[in-house]
Amino acid sequence: MDITFALRGLLLGLSIAAPVGPIGLLCIRRTLAEGRVSGLVTGMGAATADGFYGAVAAFGLTVVSSFLLGQRLWVHIVGGAFLLYLGLRIVLAGPPDKAAVVSRAGLGGAYASTVLLTLSNPLTILSFAAAFAAFGVAGSRSTYVSAALVTLGVFCGSALWWLILSGVVNVMRARLTERALLWVNRASGCLILGFAVFALASARG
After folding, report:
1. Could you please report the per-residue DSSP string of 3-70?
2. H/E element holding 183?
3. Cα torsion for 15, 21, 24, 30, to the nearest 10°?
4. Whole-model pTM?
5. How many CA atoms lie within 13 A of 186 on its CB side?
6. What is the pLDDT of residues 121-156, one digit of tens each?
7. Domain definitions of the chain by residue range
């Protein structure tokens, strides 16, 4: 068993999760509004979806990837519409409550919504495939064991990033005033709306 496949997957998961996008903004906003647990659960949803796409690329599941890429128009429309809804909801919300307590149902909704949002970009499969080639993961010598190790590494790498991000933001949360939290709320909502418009425009293209 070559543990280096897991380490490569870990680096892949970190590199793909780290760039700030709508999911990163959502994680930051939920951490500020509802606390570290909500932000971390949001990140775990993204890590789950990253792990799924990593598995599709690692195991060479061309049927799954071809189907998702073939349906990317509708996937972009649904994802864009959901981002639009979230963006508007965040912009119109009041200042986050630092003492907010999130129920299990709320955490479950945060996890599920993030999984769906992350899966709404099937082109991520292509990113993973390209990254696998760059990291020397793909190839004829790949086995089911190595593919499984890479997939596990991708999930752990992505999860590690969200753990770090939610922790850092939670520390900042305690130091921000209510007015500052309100402006962060509005700014993140507007940025998410921008991503929604981009996703819907991409669907038309």
Report:
1. THHHHHHHHHHHHHHSS--HHHHHHHHHHHHH-HHHHHHHHHHHHHHHHHHHHHHHHT-HHHHHHHHH
2. helix 178-204
3. -170
4. 0.77
5. 8
6. 766 777 777 776 666 555 445 577 888 888 899 999
7. 4-204
